[in-house]
Amino acid sequence: MKEQIQQLVAEGRTEDALALLAQHSSDALLLQARFSNGKKQYNMGLIEYSEWQRTQAQINYAALELASTIKGAGKPAAPGHGAGQQQHQHAPAETAAAHGSKVFISYNHQDSFAMRSVKGFLEDHGIKVHVDISDMSAGESIQGFIDEAFKNNDFVISVVSRNSLLSGWVNKELTVAQVLNQFNNNWIPVSIDDAAFNKDFFFEANEGIDRKISDLRGQVKKALDSELDIAPFTDELKRLQDLKASLASTLSNLKNLLVIDISGKAFDSGMLKVVDRLKGKK
Fold first, then answer.
1. What pLDDT tens digit does each residue of the chain (282 aa) get?
2. Is residue 191 within 8 Å of residue 262, measured between CB atoms?
3. What is the DSSP string of 73-124?
């Protein structure tokens, strides 16, 4: 049950998670009502997207906490507890090492060189690596691939950089990884620059996102004025809005975690720390 709820929440299927919970606990009915009310308010334009996202996050955490009480499952860690804090009760690294760790690398394509360096280092140490550039089949859904990658690998390594933090897809992966890390401690963020810890980056990033959103809204208006389909723009617009809404919390969470530095001359020493984590060494 707990694992099913975790997976549904990670896939963004909160309504399905609550429906499943409602079969086992009447307390889920209150969460369902709160979710339905929040969704209705957002669709009617009564609340901003950022407020709706915060409401969803609160409901997701409550659902995960409720799932942990069913059949005596353990209570989840409180939000903000990350990879650098004590969460060893599940011992995921030792279990994964016993069967050969499988690792998914989350990265922005502008950081392909860094990804290949990480991938090569891990493979040289006998670790199986999955990345979208080689594993995603032609025509496969990007979202579907992300969901399967998080479900079918022992660890997720996020290459954190200026590029990845400004990527809608990678930011979504970071968000999912942070949620799952509260329960199994299998997320390892590595940094190749100082963007996540640079105070100016937050303001620069928001200015850049706002420019892109403004441009897309202009394209949507142009398409509507010409009575054309706006579908080519709406998905990207939503990803940018999601990115803007979640960027502050993503940066805050990263600052509270043990992010391993693999930039420049720190690459070898940093990657050895990653390998130690994957093989269960402390």
1. 677 888 787 777 888 888 888 888 777 777 887 888 778 777 777 777 767 777 887 788 778 878 877 754 444 333 333 333 333 333 333 434 434 568 888 888 888 889 989 999 999 988 988 776 444 444 444 455 455 556 667 788 889 999 888 876 555 656 655 555 554 567 888 999 999 899 899 999 999 999 999 999 999 999 899 988 888 888 888 888 888 888 888 888 788 778 999 999 999 999 999 999 888 754
2. yes
3. PPPPPPTT--TTS--GGG-HHHHHHHH--EEEEE--GGGHHHHHHHHHHHHH
| Of residues 155, 177, 158, 163, the one with CA closest to residue 276 | 155
The token pair at 140 is 């496969």
156 SS3 class: strand
List the end-to-end C-alpha distance of the chain, in Å, as a whole number: 30
Q: How far is CA 255 from CA 8, 54, 195, 221, 276, in A?
A: 27, 20, 11, 39, 22
* Closest to 106 measured CA to CA, from 180, 43, 45: 180
Give the distance, in angstroms, between the CA of residue 115 and the centroid of all CA atoms in the same chain. Answer: 17
Q: Which helix (H) or strand (E) holds 187?
A: strand 187-191
Separation CA 275–CA 119 (nearest Å) = 11
Bridge-based pairing of strands 260-261 and 155-160 is unpaired
Q: Where do we find the tokens 């060494």? A: 281
CB neighbour class for 122 (10 Å; exposed up to 12, middle 13-18, buried from 19): buried
Please provide residue 88's backbone torsions phi and psi, each rounded to the nearest 5 degrees.
-90, 0
Residue 121: CB atoms within 10 Å: 19
Is there a contact between 259 and 196 (Cβ–Cβ < 8 Å)?
yes
pTM of the model: 0.57
